Amino acid sequence: MRVLVAEDERLLADAIAEWLRREAFAVDVAYDGDDALSRLRINEYDVVVLDRDLPVVHGDEVCRAVTEVAAPPRVLMVTAATAVRDRVAGLAIGADDYLTKPFAFVELAARVHALARRTLPAAPPVLDRSGIRLDPGRQEAHRGTTRLQLSRKEFAVLAELLRADGAVVSGEQLLERVWDEHIDPFTNVVRVTVMKLRRKLGEPPLVETITGVGYRLR
């Protein structure tokens, strides 16, 4: 799952991004509204954490632009304004949720998880297939009764394969959904991560490589 954090307070933006990466999200950061719009034109996001008071292009304009795309990401609007009329105004222009500063990172992450699930309505909160049970909210994965000790990227790759429900997921799609824009598109990180994931999943093998196409769960 991929998230854009649009926040002009750089320390806060970077802290939010780091917290969400710990939750196995791929995260990009924009420090002003123009940068946010540029990234939205290039990348597909599941959720945008959007500071309403962005410089250059106001957060309200960014929110309106988000809602006009064919498959818009969910928007969590963040602001220091606490008045009810401000929250109502933010929701009226297209935000899906609203959070006032200061906030606890754990609450922000929970709201992002909830919004991300709404972008994939067919996927249940807990993913269960091929003997694998994965709970994104708790960041837990089990094969049968055995708890899997996965890295954040291994967890995220497994989640994408489970959401595909047996369909093939290409390496390019995994790069797009699990890693952020700073990843080298020619890297072998997907292959290496899948290899480590296979080893941790154990026997019999579950992740199948479709040569020249991608990966799927048996």
From TrEMBL:
TM segments? none
Q: Name one GO biological process term.
A: regulation of DNA-templated transcription
What do the Gene Ontology cellular component annotations say? Answer: cytosol; protein-DNA complex
Domain (Response regulatory) spans 2-116
UniProt cross-references to CDD domains, sorted A to Z: trans_reg_C
Domain OmpR/PhoB-type, by residue range, is 124-218
Residues with PTM 4-aspartylphosphate: 51
Q: Which keywords describe this protein according to UniProt? A: DNA-binding, Phosphoprotein
Q: A Pfam family this protein belongs to?
A: Response_reg
The residues that make up the annotated DNA-binding region are 124-218
Q: Which GO terms describe its molecular function?
A: phosphorelay response regulator activity; transcription cis-regulatory region binding
* Designated name of the protein: Response regulator transcription factor
Lineage, opening ranks: Bacteria, Bacillati, Actinomycetota, Actinomycetes, Micromonosporales
